[in-house]
Amino acid sequence: MQLRIGIDLGGTKIEVIALGAAGQELARHRVPTPQGDYAATLAAVVGLVERVERETGRRGTVGVGTPGALSRVSGLIKNANSTCLIGEPLKDDLQALLGREVRVANDANCFALSEAVDGAGQGAPVVFGVILGTGVGAGIVVNGRALDGANGIAGEWGHNPLPLPAGDDLPLPACYCGRAGCIETYLSGPGLAMDHARCSGELARPEGIVAGAAEGDPACEASLARYEHRLARALAGVINILDPDVIVLGGGLSNIERLYQRVPRLWCPHVFSDHVATRLVRARHGDSSGVRGAAWLWPA
What we know:
It is a single chain. Strands 3-2-1-4-7 form a five-stranded mixed beta sheet. A five-stranded mixed beta sheet has the order 10-9-8-11-12, sandwiched between helices. The protein has helices at residues 38-56, 90-98, 107-118, 183-187, 189-200, 206-214, 218-242, 259-267, 289-295; strands at 4-9, 13-19, 25-32, 61-66, 69-70, 77-78, 102-106, 126-132, 136-142, 145-146, 246-250, 279-282. The chain starts with a strand and ends in a 5-residue tail after the last helix. By secondary structure, it is α/β, with parallel strands linked by helices.
């Protein structure tokens, strides 16, 4: 029976999963990510692969989801918020240590792939998977295959400008990437909290803003309404370009239940069509989608 091993290489934890031929979970473990230590990070990944292979008694294919992407020019990691990975030959080093081919993809691509294969987007030809968390990322899956793109940045939706900024959207917030007004600065968890503080003068975490809106707090309701309008505008741009069958939301902010009813109504005026059939749904596998998607980098 085929064994697929997935690694989710995160900033705070490294997780491994072993999947059987039908996608059933056979083993799963996680360890803390060695902070700022590339060699120790490699050793942790190798140790997790070896552990699940001992437990299952089988050798498996290995896929790795990582922040950032592989440069098409150098083969080195770029654009990673885990800075010890930047400029390192992660794929080559893991292949040498594990003695086999390793497939490496952006963690948002892995999220989208998991949800397209056996998650909330199962059976849909085109899936756009969005992570709304500490940062904002996305991945694109077409006919069961995650797209990387010519530059290795397909789906980097969070670092496009927010469409039609005006009024409360201004001034454009600075982004860590060096630009201003990126979608991430508005739609990430920290972006929601900063917007609420700027407009209301109150400090609150995203979950507090959501709870306050549910209880009828006017400032929290206004902040959440601004968030919904911005998310609708940003996703309308995706629909106009990609026209996906399904948009799947993951990350902590995907748990805001009202998004799934309100945002599709709000995006309609911005979509260049008389009818919008694209569905907006919550991820089926939650925070397991990244590691599952890494395993699915190897198809049947």
